[in-house]
Write a structure and sequence with these properties.
The complex is a heterotrimer of chains A (176), B (562) and C (410).
Chain A (H helix, E strand, L loop, with lengths): L7 H9 L13 E2 L2 E2 L10 E4 L11 H8 L6 H14 L15 H14 L4 E5 L7 H17 L4 E4 L3 H7 L8
Parallel strand pairs in A: 3-4, 4-5
Antiparallel strand pairs in A: 1-2
Helix pairs in contact in A: 2-4, 4-5
Chain B lengths: L1 H31 L2 E2 L4 E2 L4 H8 L3 H30 L3 H8 L1 H6 L2 H12 L4 H10 L16 H22 L5 H10 L4 H30 L2 H6 L7 H9 L6 H39 L8 H29 L17 H42 L5 H12 L2 H15 L5 H26 L2 H9 L4 H12 L1 H16 L3 H7 L6 H9 L4 H29 L10
Antiparallel strand pairs in B: 1-2
Chain C lengths: L1 H17 L16 H8 L3 E7 L3 H18 L2 E7 L3 H12 L10 E4 L2 H8 L27 E2 L2 E2 L4 E8 L1 E5 L10 H10 L12 H14 L15 H15 L14 H9 L5 E4 L4 H7 L7 E4 L5 E9 L7 H11 L2 H8 L17 H8 L10 H4 L2 E2 L4 H16 L3
Parallel strand pairs in C: 1-2, 1-3, 10-11
Antiparallel strand pairs in C: 3-10, 4-5, 6-10, 7-8, 7-9
Helix pairs in contact in C: 2-11, 3-11, 7-8, 7-15, 12-13
The chains are: A mainly alpha (176), B mainly alpha (562), C alpha/beta (410).
Chain lengths: 176, 562, 410
């Protein structure tokens, strides 16, 4: 936790490997026993969710999910995997939809599922719930943590909302 | 190695430009200081500048260039902003947007000829008045070539406003204007005021380079100024061209000195403009947050749409006028339409034009393609490695825009000859790249930099490397600005006259070299034919730039702008 | 893939900028006196003729010459259309700067007057050659001084004439039945009809020609004009001209606050009924404009009393031309009776022929007798005497002074 400007997002950027030029990183980042400090971002397998869902507006909902799937999965198997994932988050038959037509909660669920399909080894959350309304917020938060637990993923959540921090049920580190 | 190539892209781009640019500059600098061995100038001397400053028309010519350039830019920008502020997202705006690509593809000179035929004392508007007023001769009043350059300013605005509008439309989507506007309007701000307060401050930095390009172009424009601008004295750029083309070859020294002065003038114009920007942003800082909601915006909106529609109408009517001229028999004042009709001009020149269409488009496609590859490679290098060509190096890229072409070319021609490529298609393409690249860069760089970097972060987090991120995320998201930049580049290439002639050595004729030579006879019938042919060639890329995203994103609301 | 494409393109761009190759080796130099050798060398050559492309009838005539050259001599002619002859001069200058002293891109230039003087002075022309052309024998330089002195500058065999031009005025008979026929009368007419006359802005060639024509009429000492200007009393010679212009200017089109840039713009003003009198350095201009629907068929030509300025159009070969033999063949072809008769026809160019009828065979003379009369073209008798051009230094000084007096003050 920490107030705005305390470096929460910068911390996440250094972990996923997109630290802006001008920052210097010292120390090591170790995930699952392997050091990822110097790996390019795409090889770190660190999933991230931002405050905005950032669904690719040029792709369909199914296309967004497919983007996270590894390329070796092809054809029918790929389509089935996507359909199953949509069913899983209660959006059956949404594969061809334009992401711009989804509601906020729907978008959040697609973004989460897209990340999970990429098979991350850790989950980084950059205030992903702060834009949702109170009822959705609880639901999505529960969904995210439930999935992370089910897949045994370590989760790092940055937030300035004590309630989010509490509900993560983990250690709380305060920055700044 | 992909990595090292994108890393090297900025340096390579600058290097590719450096040869031609240095050669072009040397070809201007040396004779300006008396050096030109082929004409017996072997000693450094200030005589060319003495001769330049001894020319009695200089103060007025300098004043005219600066005034018309600044005024044309200011009016074009103001109209662009007013139209967007008042009408973005409305049906009227869509209509204006549709008219945009035909407007952009009309060559400057053709638009100027068309405008001249509309507003001259013997033009279409006067002919409309002639009947009720009983004129059998046009009134002897000074509309075209007026000493203050007002008709020149009008001729520039009708062409530059659409360009800025296009640049704005390419930059807008990344700013998500609809959300910001809705927020401000919900706070009780009027539409125009909201736009000025929440969109413009973010938009302007993104269209700043195109605005500077418009300014540099307007200060140094020659063809439009020769048709609409004053002649006693003409703006400096026109006078430099006259000296350059003077049969007395000794005048070339003075021409080179004049070209350097014009370069200085362009830089001065840019500095003045920059000063204005800073002053305005200081002055407006309080206004932005003072809470004024702005009411009674009706007149402002009407003004924007009115002048926007007027300027579109002027170009389109001018083009229709030229189209009628191309099939006109005898057509005299005060007749609204020709006495007779004939296809003769088309029969004579149509086949020639058609034969050159293919080569013209090939050169445009190749040069804009190369420019786009270099531009995206540079911008991609910036995204991946934080490599910027660096502001100090970047201004080199824009030199071909700042230095008046006529002065730039002799040096370039010499370089072409030394390279041994002179007179080949490859050389023509290479020299087009020099003039096209700045436009590709300034059209694309700001939208590229403005793209939310978190899309790339997400793609990386999903396990996609830089290459896949570029092809599958960044490029599709930037499809519209990329195609716009390519279309602008292609249109710039289609319009190149002197570079094609000088480097092609007469061996690589294009639509434009042919069109300008034919049109130098001054017959409006032939100007009509050549202008329509050139418009057609430049229209094609613009049409594609509009059509492709419209088709590709017909089911993607998030990819539409507005 | 961007990587692959970049690999292909970047080095190419660099090569374009950096590669330096030695200039092409010079071909065997054509010796114009040995005409058979010239013909042999010319066969198979391609000649790039750089000529203004703004006149349809000239373009068509050049095409016709090209067909003839191909059929008779196996020479291919390419017309490089220019919007200004200065573009060709720039080209040769750049080639000289780059040290390309052979294999140049231009083989033949349509040139005269100041451009010729400048290129001659700078040593940019090949020659002498023109007086060795077989068809040169058909001309009579002793009777037509314009063939060997271009604006008083001796041609010295560096350019070959192909057409005679003269300053000719035109008017629309329905609007102005009786035009003024002297400079003095012109000023009086303009005073009574303000705004109906103008002239192209000097230093445009035609505008300067108008000044010289006026100077010849009003100057007290016309003989001084053939001397270089600094050897004459310039102020005394030109004072009446400036008085005359001071009186005329307020009565000009737009009160002299704006001028048409060139002859083409003046025809347009005539077509738009903005002015009532126009002029061109081409006796056939009015007929051409009528044929092109630019002017109504009620337009007629006239000349000023006392004669009009006239000169010849030439072709020259740059010092580094690639196909000199081919270029000479074209120049000779332009002097052939067949080409000259076609050129002289008002249906084609309507330029005056440079040939001397007395040197032609009867068959050749008949070609000229069969030429039709143009609707608004004057016969050679009506055209009257040709006045010689003043020394070029007068033109430069006049242009400079005109600009200071009328060209920079709105």
């Amino acid at each position: 936790m920490g107030p705005s400007g305390s470096g929460k997002s910068t911390l996440l950027a250094s972990i996923i490997g997109t630290l802006a030029p001008g920052f210097t990183l010292s120390g090591r980042i170790v995930l699952d026993g392997t050091e990822i400090t110097h790996l390019p971002p795409e090889q770190r397998r660190t999933g991230i969710l931002f405050q905005d869902e950032l669904l690719f507006p040029h792709l369909s909902v199914g296309g967004n999910l497919g983007f996270g799937l590894p390329p070796r999965l092809r054809g029918k198997a790929r389509r089935e995997k996507i359909d199953a994932a949509l069913r899983d988050i209660g959006l059956e038959g949404f594969a061809k939809r334009d992401p711009a037509t989804l509601s906020g909660g729907q978008k959040a669920r697609v973004a989460l599922m897209r990340m999970l399909l990429a098979g991350p080894r850790a989950l980084l959350l950059d205030e992903p719930f702060s834009k949702l309304d109170a009822t959705r917020r609880g639901q999505i938060r529960a969904l995210v943590f439930e999935r992370a637990r089910a897949q045994g993923l370590p989760v790092l959540l940055v937030t300035h909302d004590p309630e989010d921090a509490e509900s993560a049920g983990g250690r709380i580190i305060t920055l700044g | 190695m992909a990595l090292s190539l994108t890393r090297a892209a900025p340096a390579l781009t600058l290097l590719a430009l450096l040869g031609p640019v240095t050669a072009g500059l040397a070809g201007t600098l040396a004779p300006a200081f008396g050096l030109m061995p082929a004409l017996g100038g072997t000693e450094v001397s200030l005589e060319p500048f003495r001769a330049l400053f001894g020319w009695p028309g200089l103060p007025r010519a300098v004043g005219l260039s600066l005034f018309t350039g600044l005024a044309a830019t200011l009016v074009s920008l103001a109209l662009t902003v007013l139209i967007c502020a008042g009408w973005q997202g409305t049906r009227a705006f869509t209509a204006l947007e549709r008219a945009l690509s035909p407007l952009l593809s009309v060559p400057h000179a053709a638009a100027a000829f068309g405008l001249a035929f509309l507003i001259a004392p013997s033009g279409w508007i006067a002919r409309l008045l002639a009947m009720p007023l009983g004129w059998d001769r046009p009134p002897d009043i000074l509309i075209l070539q007026d000493p203050f350059g007002l008709s020149l300013i009008a001729g520039l605005v009708v062409k530059e406003m659409p360009f800025l509008l296009l640049m704005t439309l390419a930059a807008l989507p990344a700013l998500r204007p609809a959300q910001s506007l809705a927020t401000a309007q919900a706070l009780g701000y009027g539409r125009v005021t909201a736009w000025f307060k929440v969109i413009l401050p973010r938009l302007y930095p993104q269209i700043r380079l195109p605005v500077y390009a418009v300014l540099a172009f307007s200060v140094s424009v020659v063809d439009v100024a020769m048709i609409l601008g004053p002649g006693t004295p003409p703006p400096l750029a026109v006078q430099v061209l006259k000296w350059m083309n003077d049969p007395d070859l000794a005048m070339r020294f003075r021409a080179a000195a004049g070209a350097l002065l014009l370069l200085a003038l362009t830089v001065a114009g840019l500095l003045l403009w920059r000063g204005g920007e800073i002053a305005l942003s200081r002055l407006s800082a309080r206004w932005l947050t003072a809470g004024g909601r702005g009411h009674g915006e009706g007149p402002l909106r009407a003004l924007g749409l009115g002048f926007g529609a007027l300027s579109a109408a002027l170009v389109l009517l001018g083009l229709i006028g030229l189209a009628i001229w191309s099939v006109a028999g005898l057509w005299r004042f005060p007749e609204m339409l020709p006495q007779g009709w004939t296809l003769r001009s088309w029969m004579r020149h149509g086949p020639e034009m058609l034969a050159l269409f293919g080569r013209t488009l090939l050169i445009a496609a190749m040069s804009s393609g190369i420019a786009m590859i270099l531009t995206t490679a540079c911008l991609e290098a910036e995204q991946r490695h934080g490599l910027r060509p660096g502001t100090r190096a970047l201004w080199l890229l824009y030199l071909p825009l700042l230095v008046p072409q006529i002065a730039f070319l002799p040096g370039l021609q010499v370089a072409g000859l030394l390279s041994g490529l002179d007179g080949t298609l490859a050389a023509v393409i290479a020299v087009h790249v020099v003039f096209v690249l700045p436009y590709a860069f300034l059209s694309l760089s700001d939208p590229y930099r403005a793209l939310d970097p978190r899309y790339a972060a997400v793609a990386h987090a999903l396990g996609r490397g830089p290459s896949a991120t570029f092809w599958r995320v960044r490029l599709p998201l930037l499809l519209r600005p990329c195609l716009t930049a390519a279309a602008v580049s292609a249109a710039v290439s289609v319009g190149q006259y002197l570079p094609t002639l000088f480097i092609g050595g007469g061996r690589v004729p294009t639509l434009t070299t042919e069109a300008l030579a034919l049109a130098s006879g001054g017959d409006r019938r032939i100007i009509g034919v050549t202008a329509l042919a050139q418009t057609g060639a430049a229209f094609l890329p613009f049409a594609l730039a509009l059509l492709i995203p419209a088709l590709a994103w017909r089911n993607r609301r998030g990819m539409r702008h507005g | 893939m961007i990587r692959r494409s970049m690999r292909n393109w970047l080095p190419l761009g660099l090569a374009a900028a950096l590669t330096i190759t030695p200039p092409t080796l010079a071909l065997a130099e054509a010796e114009p006196a040995d005409w058979e050798a010239v013909l042999a060398e010319a066969e198979g050559q391609t000649v790039y003729w750089n000529a203004w492309g703004g006149a349809e009838n000239v373009n068509a005539f050049i095409d016709w010459i090209g067909d003839l050259a191909q059929d008779e001599y196996g020479v291919t002619l390419e017309h490089v259309k220019l919007s200004d002859t200065a573009e060709a001069v720039s080209r040769v200058l750049a080639e000289k700067t780059a040290g390309k002293d052979a294999g140049g891109a231009i083989d033949l230039i349509w040139i005269n007057g100041e451009n010729f003087a400048a290129m001659k002075r700078q040593g940019l022309l090949f020659g002498p050659w023109s007086e060795d052309l077989p068809n040169w024998q058909l001309t009579d330089p002793s009777a037509n001084a314009a063939l060997t002195a271009d604006f008083t500058v001796p041609t010295e065999g560096l350019e070959s004439p192909w057409g005679m031009a003269q300053l000719v005025f035109y008017h629309d008979t329905t609007r102005l039945p009786e035009p003024p026929r002297s400079m003095a009368a012109l000023a009086d007419w303009a005073a009574q009809n303000p705004g109906r006359f103008t002239y192209p802005q000097p230093p445009d060639f035609l505008g300067s020609t108008f000044l010289k024509q006026a100077l010849i009429e009003v100057t007290p000492d016309a003989a001084a004009l053939s001397q270089p200007v600094d050897e004459a009393d310039y102020a005394a010679a030109t004072a009446p001209l400036w008085d005359w212009l001071d009186a005329l200017t307020p009565n000009l089109w737009r009160q002299g606050k704006a001028y048409p840039q060139n002859a083409q713009r003046m025809i347009q003003l005539m077509a738009d009924s903005e002015i009532d009198i126009g002029f061109e350095f081409n006796p056939n201009a009015a007929s051409n404009a009528i044929a092109n629907f630019q002017l109504p068929d009620t337009v007629r030509s006239f000349v000023l009393e006392g004669g009009s300025l006239g000169n010849a159009s030439f072709v020259a070969i740059p010092y580094n031309a690639n196909a000199k033999a081919g270029a000479m063949v074209i120049a000779n072809l332009l002097l052939s009776p067949q080409a000259q008769a076609r050129m002289a026809s008002p249906d084609e160019l309507g330029f005056g022929t440079v040939l001397a009828m007395g040197r032609l065979s009867d068959d050749q003379v008949r070609l000229f007798d069969e030429i039709p009369v143009g609707i608004a073209t004057l016969t050679p008798e009506e055209l009257g005497p040709t006045l010689p051009e003043p020394h070029p230094s007068w033109m430069e000084k006049l242009e400079e002074d005109w600009t200071a007096r009328y060209g920079v003050a709105p």
